[in-house]
Amino acid sequence: xxxxxxxxxxxxxxxNLLAADHLVTxxxxxxxxxxxxxxxxxxxxxxGIYRNAVIRFHNTNGTKDQQVTFAAQTPGQVFFxxxxxxxFSGNYIRVDGFTWRNGGDSLGNRTVIDxxxxxxxxxxxxxxxxxxxxxxxxxxxIDNKWVGLHGVYNTVTHCLFKDKRNLxxxxxVWLIPGKEAHHTISYNYFYGRHNGPNQDNGLESIRxxxxxxxxxxxxxxxxxxxxxxCNGEIEIISNKSCxxxxxxxxxxxxDGGLTLRHGNNCLxxxxxxxxxxxxxxxxxxxxxxxxxxxxxxxxxxxxxxKQNFRAPVTLVTGVVNTPINGYFxxxxxxxxxxxxxxxxxxxxxxxxxxKRDGATLSPDTVLIKDNLFxxxxxxxxxxxxxxxxxxxxxxxxxxxxxxxxRATGKGFLTVSFxxxxxxxxxxxxxxxxxxxxxCTNKSSVTxxxxxxxxxxxxxxxxQLKGRKYTHLSxxxxxxxxxxxxxxxx
Length: 489
Hints:
The chain is mainly β.
C-alpha cells in the first residue's frame, strides 16, 4: 500500500507536469486562453506592440502554489499603446512584465489595470508585478485611475508609475464593507505625479479607501516604495481607512507628504522624507484616532512656515459634529523616536486648523517622546508649536542638537552642538561621540493597542527586521527588467 506522504508527492509532480506555457500572438487568443487556463498555466504574449488592446478575463482555477499567469514573452518588451486596458478577476492570478505607453488620451474614466471584471467579480490573492505605466493620460480634467485594487490579499510589486498628469489617483484601493483587504504595495517607483488640471484634490499617488469606507479595517501594507517628483497635490498618499501600515517608504523631492486623512489606528514607521528643493514638501499629517509615527527620518522639509498643514509632523484640529468627509478629532496620537534634520520650524505642529466652521477640537491625548532635532543648516525657531491649547499632551526625553533651534516647554533637552557629527543619513553623534541616532537602531513604543496592519508578508518582515528607517533610490525599486536604467529620462 502506497504511503500517504509519497501519494502527496506524486500528486504534486503530476499537477506540475500538467501545467503548460502557451505563447500567443493576439489579444483574442490571450483572452480565450486566460478565461479557462488551469492552475499553473502561463499565457505568454509575444514581444511586440499591441494597440487598443482590451484584455478582460475571469479565472478561478489558480491556487496558492500554482497561479494562473499572464506574462510578457520578455519582460519590458511587450507594449500596450493607444487606449489599451486590462481587467481581471478570480483567484491566484499573476500579471507580469507589461508596459503601457504612448496612449491613454481616449480612455475617459476607465481604469488602465483593474482588479475586477464586474461588481461581483473581483481579483483575490493575485499579483501585479514588473509592469510599467508611462505617461498614459486622458484629458487633464478627466478622473481615471491607473491601477484599481479590489478583493482581498492582492499584491502590487516592482512596478513603475511615471508621469501621470490628469485627475484620479495613480493607484486606488477600493474597500468592501465588512472585509479586511490585506493588500500589499511594495517596491514600486512612483515618479513624476503632475498636476495638469491645476486642482488641489484628486491627484494622489496612492489612495486607500474613500470617505464612505473610511471606518473599514483595511489592514493594507505600503512598504519600500519610492515616491519622487510627486507634485500632484498635498497628499502623495491619502489614507482613508483603518489599521494600515506605511513602512520604510521614501518620499523625495516632492511637494506633498503622507496624510492620514480618514480612518484610525494607522502606523507610519521607518519612512524617509527628503524635501530637497521643494518649497511645499512635508512629512506626516494626522487626522483621526490612534495613529502612530515612529522611527521616521525627516530632512530638508521647509514648508512649515508657508502653509498650516505642512510641518514635518502636523496634528490637525477636528471639526465639531464633522461630516464623514470632514475632519475628525486627533486623539491618542504618538510621535516618537523620529529624527528631524534641517527642517524649518516648527518640526511638530499641533492644532493646525482647517478652514471649516466648527474647527475647534484641538488634539487630545498625545505622546511626543524620544525624538531628535538636529540642524546644521542654520534654521532657527521653536521646534514645537501648539496653535490651539491641547489636552493631555505628554512630552518627554526629546533632544535638540542645533545652534539656533529651541523649545521653551518641558520635555526637550538641548545638547551642545559643538563637535556633533552627521554621516549622511546613516547616523548622528553628539560632541562626545555618543550615538544619538542611526539607521540600524530601531525603536518601539509599548503600552498601546495594536496599530497598523495585523498581517505582513513574511518576506517583507525579513527585509525590514532591525532597520530603523530606509533611504531608497531608483535602483531599489521598480520593474526588475529596468534595473540600472535611467527612469528619469
